[in-house]
Amino acid sequence: MENDETVSVLLKQALALAKAGFDIVAPSDMMDGRIGKIRRALDDNGFQDVSILSYAVKYYSSFYAPFRQVVGSCVPSSSIDKSGYQMDYRNAREAICEIEMDINEGADFIMMKLGIPYLDVIKTVNDKFNFPIFAYQVSGEYAMIKATINNSWLDYDKVIYESLISFKRAGASAIFTYAALDVARNLRQEAQYAL
Fold this sequence. Notes:
This protein is of the alpha/beta class. It is built from 8 helices and 5 strands.
């Protein structure tokens, strides 16, 4: 992976997004030093109020498979092997180092990807840093839950909600999930019935 060249492109992308009116940029590349350089580029160009959501922790995981199939990046190839820059799922300590670096470089929020298999890491990170930690329930996690519905094994609404509560218990400040609209609709209906 060409770190410096990639960071140079990220700077251009961040500035283009800021100029287009975006309030938050969210580099998900895991390149070294990119948060500090993006922060400086934004600040130097008058975008001090544009926040950075850093994907500081992305584990190399088989749980991304449904997404990778959809976007066509699941064909084995050395040119798309993400294990070269995504984190080894056996390593929890590296998450602490990556998050600390990104906070020190100027990140406003931290994204941890993925979720349920890494609740222990989310908890550890939440305990260590007084900082907004977001968690991402990825396609494979969501697909597993949806598959139980197709087989009539579990109640989707209850199970998806319970899975998201586990993120909150672990300390996630916010959760990205494919089930967001379903959960929002259910919570709105529950609120209406409570009135």
